[in-house]
Amino acid sequence: MSNTDTGRSAGRGRRPGAPDTRAEILSSARSLFAARGFGSTSVRAIAADAGVDPSLVHHYFGTKDDLFVAALEIPVDPRELLATVVDEGQDGAAERMLRIFLGVWDDPQHRLPLIGLFRSLLEPAGERMLREGFLPVVLIPVGERLGVDHPEVRMPVVASQVLGLILVRYVVALEPVASMSADQVVATYAPVLQRYLFAPLPG
Amino acid sequence: MSNTDTGRSAGRGRRPGAPDTRAEILSSARSLFAARGFGSTSVRAIAADAGVDPSLVHHYFGTKDDLFVAALEIPVDPRELLATVVDEGQDGAAERMLRIFLGVWDDPQHRLPLIGLFRSLLEPAGERMLREGFLPVVLIPVGERLGVDHPEVRMPVVASQVLGLILVRYVVALEPVASMSADQVVATYAPVLQRYLFAPLPG
Question: How much is the pLDDT for B136?
Answer without folding.
Answer: 81
